[in-house]
Amino acid sequence: MSDVTRLLEAAGREDGRAAADLLPLVYDELRKLAAARLAADRAGHTLQPTALVHEAYLRLVGGHQPATWNGRGHFFGAAPEAMRRILVENARRRRRVRHGGGRRREPLPDVAAPEPGADLLALDEALTRLAAAYPVHARLVERRHFAGLPGDDAAAVFSISPSTADRHWVFAKAWLKRDLRRGDFLSDS
After folding, report:
1. Which of the listed residues 18, 82, 159, 188 has the most CB atoms within 10 Å of its CB?
2. Is 40 buried (19+), middle (13-18) or exposed (0-12) by CB count in 10 A?
């Protein structure tokens, strides 16, 4: 049993020391996931990768109800979903009127910037619709698009072959593009 798995089990039993010891072991990998996700998004994010990692970690390990983790893969499989939820909540908050949601940033000279988070919200809604019909495909999109996992790593999370993961990825991208009526949300990676 790896150190990460052992500490995840202890953190699930509400062992505060285990949760503190776990962070240094998973921090670098979570930070890479967050940095890849934020780099792939449009400009205008107010979250930095470090803040995204800390918020995701608190939701995964420091919640009111301790989570039960079935190992390292389960934990790192849940991390992209937590990051997605944080980014969507942040985008929704920025769109609220009291947070300046009705205003657009205009860089000089007078060129209107796209509304921050609008594309992320549309993608989140489409991804929720995809998950209703094809849950594995939607979770694969979360891992690849939101966490920046390469195809082979995403396949390993689901214990499927890389070719099956690639077929799911192609199908999910086509489904989302049709649903969004645009093709610029998901890269070909």
Report:
1. 82
2. middle
For residues 52 and 37, what is the distance between their CA atoms, to the nearest angstrom?
A: 10
Q: Where are the domains of the chain?
A: 3-101+111-180
Handedness of CA 29, 63, 117, 152 (dihedral sign): positive
- Tens digits of residue pLDDT in 125-166: 889 999 999 999 999 988 888 777 888 888 888 888 888 988
First CA to last CA distance, the chain: 32
**Per-residue tokens: 47:** 């979250």
Whether the full predicted model's pTM is greater than 0.85, yes or no, is: no
Alpha helices in the chain (DSSP H): 3-12, 16-40, 49-61, 72-95, 118-133, 135-141, 151-158, 162-180
